[in-house]
Amino acid sequence: MGTDDLRRVRTYLERTGLAAAAIDELPGDASDRRYVRVRAPDGSSQVLLVHRGPIDTATLPLLNVARLLARMDVPAPAVRGSAGDLGILALEDLGDLTLERFLATATAAQRRAVYADAVDLIARLQRRGRELASPDYLPFTLAFDEDKLAWELDFFVEHFLLDHRRAALSAAARAALDAELRAVARELAAEPRVLCHRDFHSRNLMLHAGRLYVIDFQDARLGPATYDLVSLLRDCYVRHEPSFVTGMLARYHDRAGSPGGAAFLDRFDLMSVQRHLKALGTFGYQATAAGNERYLAAVPRTLDYLADVFRRAPRFERLRALLAPRVPELPQEPAP
User: Fold this and answer.
1) Under 8 Å between Cβ of 119 and 232
2) Do the Cβ atoms of 194 and 129 come closer than 8 Å?
């Protein structure tokens, strides 16, 4: 934590009568926000979310989305206080047990139970999102439209393919790749839209007091029904057996009252291609531009997901043929 961040934290604690609290910096995410746990002398604790500079609490996306989630009965950390001039939010301390950490020691039955809860939360987000849709809530004014999805795919090309992997792309190859990626974005953008958390994976789900909580939800927006499901079940940080994924998708269809079948799985694969290319762009950016290499451990698993789709789905043959010479982990031969 930088000197200015620490100064602002101490100022906030002095204002709120917690000058004697102990301060422990927590691991951050892929943003420029910082997280600090403060422990008061009475044993209570809270987490301070420290922004780079002042914030407007009247318009801050996190607070807007938090109000929406509260109406939906989707568990999220409560807001304990704020100081806009200091750029600080005080949040309920949920502890340190992310879903990713929980899985390290969970039994098969525990894993099934917690993922059933997670799938149910996705179905609730979608159902209650339809019921509560209003421009008063920021997520209903934002969407994964064609331009947004295409921008994320271009981020992959720039920051993973070119910057991180140092791939060579002729003008003709770049134009062909852009056309394939734009087609993916166009098809996804045409799907019916539901409320999406946007980063619904094992590092953004926490277990606390016997409940599953969502965090890092400030970028929620409208998008395909498969978006959060891909984030959860084809998680860049956790791999599941195909039969487990199939079972959880069946639960989703039951809870959401939606049809499954081959057409849905095709949409699921399409969303997987976009989501994982976007994730690779983020990992590449963190490593090359931000000097943060901890996300590189997730690259092999993420490429494995893409390879799986390319092996079984001939519809992505042109995209595979353009990427494979530059990404050797991908299949070098067409799908049968």
Assistant:
1) yes
2) yes
| Distance in angstroms (rounded) separating the CA atoms of residues 110 and 241 | 15
Which range among 21-35, 72-86, 262-276 shows the weakest confidence by mean pLDDT? Answer: 21-35
Residue 30 CA to residue 236 CA, distance in Å, equals 14
Residue 29 clears pLDDT 70, i.e. is over it: no
Q: What is the mean pLDDT of residues 190-198?
A: 98
DSSP SS3 for 46: strand
CA pseudo-torsion sign 56, 58, 59, 62: positive
85 sits in which H/E element: none
Residue type, 240: H
Taking the alpha carbons at both ends of the chain, their separation in whole angstroms is: 52
CA 225 – CA 125 distance, rounded (Å): 10
* 214: its two tokens: 């969502």
| pLDDT at position 32 | 76
104: which 2 tokens?
A: 């390290």
Q: H-helix or E-strand containing 210? A: none
